[in-house]
Structures
1.
Amino acid sequence: MSKHLKEYNSDKLKLYGEITKKAIELSKIQNKYKGLNKEIIICRNIIFNLKKEKSEIINKSNEEIKKFLIEKSQIDKLKEENERISNLYDKQTKELINVSVEKEILASQNSKLKLDILQAQKTMLFKSMQASRAFTYQRN
């Protein structure tokens, strides 16, 4: 009886340790997931502002060309600014894609960890039931 109880307690402690470890990993992933969500929101806001800024610059440059026939150097400056904003927009878009991919990976890991925890809980319940049966059997 004592041997089975010790084995049960040992198995139970091991499973508890595994569940605790998985729960800590899950918590870390959830925190990272929250951080990535914040980064996605920031990136989306930056992209929105860059699109708006790009549109404003393009509209302004077109108006100036129509109204005043801007000198060549001024046109070049506006084109450079437009290119800079386009490059920033492209960079932010790539970063958003990377963050979205990372988010999907974390979501997948999160699901796997949840399944691992459920499996560990099922195993612990099964071991508990076995120990209870063994204890009842020994008493009889």
2.
Amino acid sequence: MNNLEEKLKNIKARKLGTDEKELLWQNIVVAKARQAEQKTLSINIFNNMKKYIAIAIIVLVILGGGTMVSANNAGPGDFLFGLDKALERLELRFASEDKEAEIKIKIAEERIAEIKQVSEEKGTRAPLVADLSTATALEIEADVFTNETVVKIEADNKNYGYVSILKTKDELVAEIAEKYSLDESKVAEIIDFEIEDRDSRAEDKGFLNKLHSVRFSENESEDVGESLSDVEEILNNGLSEADKEKLENALNDILILLGDDAELEIERKGNKIEIESESDDIKIKIKVENENKSGNGNNDDSDDDDDNDDEDEDEDDDNSGSGNDDDDEDDDD
């Protein structure tokens, strides 16, 4: 201890010069500023983290942890359907360029599946077996294709039918008579029996997917219309020809499914889809503008809308006395 005191006494204090004092003070100021900056940054990061965590907690508390899953399972007319579409738009917005087409196809396929599901839930299919013994107006057609036979029946302005494995006229007459409680001689007399040298196509049996009645609520009609618009917009923007064909086929199946005996009318012209439900007085017109179109295209589309309105009125007048024309046209198509 004494040695330490002696050493301290022997130390002589040295006076700092003016330049040394300024340099020392500058170092102190810089060190203080850095310390304050680091402290502020830490506080800001902590505060931001608290803010984001708080928002996440509030969302989870209000909506529940399964909200995202529920939204993804929502369909047209559901409360969370808008959230589902918003999440998909967000996913598409932040997608990389090589993933964009894949996500578009996924969204379009989901829209088509949702429309199909809600349409089937709201409609009734043509029965494969029925008692038509009292039918006053009866038409029967059997088209024998190389892979299957398609039977179409119209009784009192309603469609029936099925796909059969039978190929001969006599066998089909017996089968039809049994399924629809008809006399074989009557079936044999009126049946239109034709043999086709090709496989059947989707349009040959599209009538089997038709719904006799489909009644959407106002929200469902609006969501279905927007979903069809989404699919059309995706088709018109940046897809390969193979992907376009795939979605076109799926969309055509939906249009066949929704095409109905005057309950729901759908007309597709170019990049426009019109939906009209006479039973619920709901009319939806969708116009999808192609990005490559010039400004003059809008005027043409407006004219087309007016023309379509006139055509709709004419068609209503023409069909007021008969419900067969629409079905025949669909089958021919």
